[in-house]
């Protein structure tokens, strides 16, 4: 296989005159100052020997490090997953009947594990023979043509087909069958999309500011950086095996807003805009993650990179993680476990030696994100920085859409905007670049009765994962239940400010319940009659923005049928809600 290289276009950088030394700046992503910091862990030299090596163009675990590796690592060693794409193995696999595929461990592992490198997730438990396909959509930016194509894919699957907006500004489409995959992949390429390297031990969708380039208050347009990262990660959609055999998944984001719409504290790598010696660049946060057994906020790496080094430092961090990360217990394979073992300075040294010049500057104290900033609501109509234009934020209830919905949204983007749509981490959609003269007509569109720019206050912050309708790991149903329960709660209390409620079907917490004001994590429990029923562990106190904080368990194993009075009580006691009976009496 030919050696791997990519040529990148240089991104447009912010005007350096905006960032003079006299600019008022806030501190954020710099390391905290301590009186007596603990010494770094002692790490033996042999521990820093890379555990992987390149062989025939792909990266594999060395023989001497294979003892105690987890089953997923063994699947990767048995057959390189990227060959299904880079050597066109998917063409042959798609021709084999699924019943025949199940008769061989090798091909069964292909459809259950290796196809995740192509963004395909077999729904063996709940939709046998059907797949969810996850895309790569840097910064959540998509086009009307892309949206229509995805609609055409799911439409053919009838009731089995639908699409979801994810908490990483991304599309997931459902109902896909294996024989259709080669044609779908070709169709994605024709409209400028890819699903490559979007699952399993790969880099996930690069998140950015959903208002990039249109926000009058933005710090920097994140789109050039998220695009460059995605191009690097996927090898310009041709495949990049250099970073496709990580110990575990890895999430990046580039921050461009004071609002921190990008949720940097829960990403493995977050680029925080900062000035150093008059140069624009980014301080780095590392290690934020959620898992079933542990959740941690990202911490400062004490590193700053100029804007031109966004990709090189990403590559260096990924290679350090790839080379040295744990590959045993899957619950201990995320990057923060490696940072714990090496210490921040030790990990930083490993990153530095993998930089092109083996140099990594210390963090800048001139962080551009203002800490005292009230997070703005992007739902509804708002003026853009471009005179005479506005954007509209539409609420998509728990992120679920059908084929006809996608066609309608694409039509709105064409008729009123510039043919562009943007997905948000809260599972909503923004249509930018609308001439102000068209706003009145847009607001009369029938589809806005379903996807409202001004939803009920409790619906605004409602997020839900796929749930057990489709996901085999989910313990409870989430999407329909979250809507039903929220509607009932709204009938009982009145609120003056949004409260973010997140529902996740299992401890993997894809819906990020720990960042919610109130979170619900699916479990099984017993009701008052001692019968096993669907329930939820309830989390409280998550915060986003500069004052980010992960919520903690408030009450465990609450039967879902008993959640409404508990939520009402929490809203009254903690969020200023007023019971509607009392509200009517006072009126």
Automatic annotation (TrEMBL):
Key word Ribosomal protein present: no
UniProt GO BP: nitrate assimilation
Domain of life: Eukaryota
Pathway, per record: Nitrogen metabolism; nitrate reduction (assimilation)
Name listed for the protein in its UniProt record: Ferredoxin--nitrite reductase, chloroplastic
Keywords attached to this entry: 4Fe-4S, Heme, Iron, Iron-sulfur, Metal-binding, Nitrate assimilation, Oxidoreductase
Catalytic activity line of the entry: 6 oxidized [2Fe-2S]-[ferredoxin] + NH4(+) + 2 H2O = nitrite + 6 reduced [2Fe-2S]-[ferredoxin] + 8 H(+)
One Gene Ontology molecular-function label: metal ion binding
Cofactor(s), by name: siroheme; [4Fe-4S] cluster
Signal peptide segment: none
